[in-house]
């Protein structure tokens, strides 16, 4: 199979995956009930899937524009299945069913379910077909059957912890589930915790990943189109987003994730000669990034060139940026297509 064929397959996969991600990014800024009915410790005692069926776990920080243009605030449990058989989904811990959001995909009644464990901690599961006996307002036990898996071969698990504060440069652009995103695997008890960490598809010893990669006064992290509207994360703002982040499986590799507006939508590698975003400041001249695609399944194959990005910090919280699809370019100058982005 040649590189062009592989790239075409990648695009097809990304399109299908986007349909699933559209649901998992339907973030709801939920608030706790007026009367707290549960006071469970923020501890997970059960895997949401039979651990023997879990193939891999994806850490925080997954990128897949445009649904995940910025690093994801939940982890993913990928599972093995036979044919189209569904897999049972269990509650990681006890608590109050706070909300069930129906998000059908095709003829599958997929839902996102929030479970409040105490006044400061809530977790959620996404891409679950909830059992009809489970209703909002019910108290559930850890390990209780919630339903079955949905269309894809993964489910999401997120933790919202009021004791956590991810240091986004402008937290007003994010839902509370992102600002207060905890590291889901860290809440499990041993030996289950160790078993789950061993399944994380991530190089190195740091297995949780990062939801926030903002570095103040540098290019590193998330940016939003500066067009006179205060754009925020979520379905209405996905195409306005841009992130200089990292590959979660290979966290030493810088990725540039583009949601839209400036073209070259997707997530792209940069070359070894390109300056790291964390080293670009307002005192740095305009820089050029050579965008390319490296197939993660064939990392030793030549990178497929996709185009060029030029960017410059005009001050600590604003950048001027433009992309060019001409793969022969090594540098360029800004023209009337350049856009401004802000923190």
Key descriptive features of the protein:
2 domains, single chain, 9% helix, 8-stranded antiparallel beta sheet, 9-stranded antiparallel beta sheet, 3 helices, 17 strands, mainly beta, Glucose Permease (Domain IIA), 343 residues, disordered N terminus
Task: Describe this structure as you would to a colleague.
The chain is mainly beta. It folds into two domains: 195 residues, Glucose Permease (Domain IIA), CATH 2.70.70.10; 122 residues, no CATH class. It has three helices and 17 strands. Strands 1, 2, 3, 4, 5, 6, 7, 8 and 9 form a nine-stranded antiparallel beta sheet that branches. An eight-stranded antiparallel beta sheet has the order 13-12-11-10-17-16-15-14, with no helix packed on it. Strand 4 and strand 5 form a beta hairpin. The longest helix is centred in the N-terminal third of the chain and has 22 residues. The chain starts with a helix and ends with a strand. The N terminus is likely disordered.
